[in-house]
C-alpha cells in the first residue's frame, strides 16, 4: 500500500490527511521492524514453519473476535450515520470475511471448534485485545480510531510487501492474497480517511492521545507476530 505523503502536522488544522501522515512518519521505524522481522521474512519466503503459522492463525482468530467488538463500539460512537455503517460493516468483515480465511487453514491443519475453544489467548493476544476494548470503552471516538488504524494499515503494508517478494509456490498464498488484495485496500483507505476526519475536529490534547494510541497499537502488532514466531505462551 502507498502511504500518505509524509507531513508533520500535529494539530487538527494541519489539513486533510495530516494525522495519518504524521502518525505513519512517527512510527516508520516500528513498521520497518515489523516488515523485516523473522515471521514476515519467512512467511514471504514460504519457509515459515507450519507450527508457527498455526500458532499465529489460532491467535489471530481469537484476536478478530475482540477486534470485531471494538469496531462495533466504534460504530456506536461514530458521530455520523456513514461512520456507523462503515464501522458496523468492518466489524462484520472482521468476524465473517477474515474468519473464512482462517477456516481454510483450520481445515488444513485439523483445528476443530473444540481445539480452538480450548486454546487460550497468549499474553500478546490478550494484551492487544484488552487494550483495544479498554480504549473502545474509555476513550472518545477519535482516539479509538487511532488505536484501530494500525491493524488495518500495517497489515495492508505488510501484505503488499510480502506479495511483492513472495515465493511462487508459497503455502501461505491465501493469507498473502487477502491482505494484498483490492478489497482490503478499499477498507484500509476508508479507515485512514475516517481517522483523519476525526482528527480534524480534535483538540491538541486529543491529538496527543491519538498519537499515543496509534503508537501503542503499532507496538502490539509487532508483539503479536513476535509472539507467534517464538510460540510464546503464559509462563504459569
From TrEMBL:
This is TenA family protein. It comes from Methylobacterium longum. Transmembrane segments: none annotated. Residues 38-230 form the Thiaminase-2/PQQC domain. The lineage of its organism: Bacteria, Pseudomonadati, Pseudomonadota, Alphaproteobacteria, Hyphomicrobiales. PANTHER family: BIFUNCTIONAL TH2 PROTEIN (PTHR43198), SI:CH1073-67J19.1-RELATED (PTHR43198:SF2). CDD domains: TenA_C-like (cd19365).
Amino acid at each position: 500500500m502507498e502511504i500518505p505523503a509524509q507531513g508533520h502536522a500535529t494539530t487538527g488544522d494541519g489539513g486533510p490527511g495530516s494525522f495519518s501522515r504524521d502518525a505513519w512518519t512517527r512510527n516508520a521505524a516500528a513498521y520497518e521492524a515489523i516488515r523485516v522481522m523473522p515471521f514476515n521474512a519467512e512467511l514471504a519466503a514460504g519457509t515459515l514453519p507450519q507450527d508457527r503459522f498455526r500458532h499465529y492463525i489460532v491467535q489471530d482468530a481469537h484476536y478478530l473476535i475482540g477486534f470485531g467488538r471494538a469496531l462495533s463500539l466504534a460504530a456506536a460512537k461514530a458521530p455520523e450515520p456513514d461512520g456507523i455503517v462503515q464501522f458496523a460493516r468492518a466489524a462484520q468483515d472482521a468476524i465473517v470475511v477474515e474468519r473464512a480465511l482462517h477456516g481454510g487453514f483450520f481445515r488444513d491443519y485439523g483445528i476443530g471448534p473444540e481445539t480452538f475453544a480450548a486454546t487460550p489467548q497468549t499474553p500478546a493476544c490478550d494484551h492487544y485485545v484488552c487494550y483495544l476494548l479498554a480504549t473502545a470503552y474509555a476513550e472518545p471516538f477519535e482516539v479509538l480510531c487511532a488505536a484501530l488504524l494500525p491493524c488495518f494499515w500495517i497489515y495492508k503494508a505488510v501484505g503488499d510487501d510480502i506479495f511483492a517478494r513472495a515465493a511462487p509456490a508459497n503455502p501461505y498464498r491465501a493469507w498473502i492474497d487477502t491482505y494484498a488484495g483490492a478489497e482490503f485496500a478499499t477498507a484500509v483507505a476508508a479507515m485512514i480517511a475516517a481517522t483523519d476526519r476525526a482528527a480534524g475536529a480534535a483538540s491538541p490534547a486529543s491529538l496527543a492521545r491519538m498519537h499515543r494510541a496509534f503508537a501503542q497499537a503499532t507496538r502490539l502488532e509487532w508483539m503479536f507476530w513476535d509472539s507467534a514466531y517464538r510460540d510464546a505462551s503464559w509462563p504459569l
